[in-house]
């Protein structure tokens, strides 16, 4: 049953907010942005977006980022959905850096993946009302959100205990901004999807290749090896699966920002690979200018 929350006409004529789960004191919501010209019998592809913020901040409806992205995809014939999720590191003494124990980091990844899968399941359960094509859901996220979606898509069997609850939840593509996953070896011919990756080689928070999260040293409680975009792209390349890898030499964590100037190319890629089943492997390599932040 849909839990209707609010209809807002402030930023989009077709934005509806729903509650997809209540977990303890957290009421988790998602904003559904639909194209203005959607017809009653339409069934549209979806971008399901998870915001960043180190699992301690960020919002699903930031008007300059998440909301702007969701509105953009409606111009491409998609439904844009941006979700809230539990910010488990908010207000904690150890944050999410090198003082945060590895076990806490893994638990944070797990619960973020579960929240994301619950949002996807909500969409699946209400696909007719929301007018979504449940076979064309692109999982997207930035920074912490990218970590959440990568682990949800590619490491569901590792993080989720009740797999049967999500047996019908499937994704058609991945859009990751400065993200990483616990182990890229979980990507296989059976679960690999067309994937867009943006990452800077000098990202100081989320490893670009295979390296410790936040580059913590082995003696630190938060020492946890992750596989970043380079490792993921290499795995997809080996498997012969479509990917679009936007690599910035010298780039840092600013690559977690939504690349609005590049979105036309990103959704052209998804149009060909997700909607038309083409195989495309693209690497775009840029050198960061020395005067850029």
TrEMBL record:
Pfam families, per database record: BD-FAE
The answer, when asked if Protein biosynthesis is one of the entry's keywords, is no
Q: Would the keyword Hydrolase turn up in this protein's UniProt record? A: yes
- Give the molecular function GO annotations: hydrolase activity
Q: SUPFAM superfamilies, per this entry?
A: alpha/beta-Hydrolases (SSF53474)
Domain BD-FAE-like span(s) in chain numbering: 30-147
Q: Which UniProt keywords apply?
A: Hydrolase
Q: State the PANTHER family in the record.
A: AB HYDROLASE SUPERFAMILY PROTEIN C4A8.06C, PEPTIDASE S9 PROLYL OLIGOPEPTIDASE CATALYTIC DOMAIN-CONTAINING PROTEIN
- Entry protein name: Alpha/beta hydrolase
Q: Which organism is it from?
A: Hwangdonia lutea
């Amino acid at each position: 049953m849909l839990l209707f929350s609010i209809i807002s006409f402030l930023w989009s004529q077709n934005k509806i907010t729903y509650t997809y789960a209540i977990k303890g004191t957290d009421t988790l919501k998602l904003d559904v942005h639909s194209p203005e010209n959607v017809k009653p019998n339409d069934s549209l592809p979806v971008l399901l977006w998870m915001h960043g913020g180190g699992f301690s901040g960020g919002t699903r409806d930031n008007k300059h980022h998440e909301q702007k992205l969701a509105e953009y995809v409606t111009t491409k014939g998609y439904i844009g959905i941006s979700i809230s999720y539990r910010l488990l590191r908010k207000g904690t003494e150890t944050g999410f850096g090198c003082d945060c124990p590895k076990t806490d980091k893994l638990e944070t990844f797990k619960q973020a993946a579960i929240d994301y899968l619950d949002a996807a399941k909500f969409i699946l359960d209400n696909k007719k009302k929301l007018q979504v094509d449940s076979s064309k859901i692109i999982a997207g996220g930035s920074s912490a959100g990218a970590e959440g979606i990568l682990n949800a898509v590619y490491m569901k069997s590792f993080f989720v205990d009740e797999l049967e609850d999500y047996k019908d939840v499937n994704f058609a593509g991945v859009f990751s901004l400065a993200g990483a996953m616990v182990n890229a070896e979980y990507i296989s011919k059976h679960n690999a999807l067309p994937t867009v990756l943006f990452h800077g080689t000098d990202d100081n928070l989320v490893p670009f290749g295979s390296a410790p999260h936040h580059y913590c040293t082995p003696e630190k409680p938060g020492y946890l090896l992750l596989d970043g975009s380079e490792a993921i792209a290499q795995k997809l390349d080996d498997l012969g699966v479509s990917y679009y890898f936007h690599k910035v030499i010298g780039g840092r964590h600013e690559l977690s920002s939504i690349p609005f100037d590049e979105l036309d190319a990103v959704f052209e890629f998804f149009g060909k690979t997700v909607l038309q089943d083409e195989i495309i492997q693209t690497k775009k390599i840029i050198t960061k200018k020395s005067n850029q932040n």
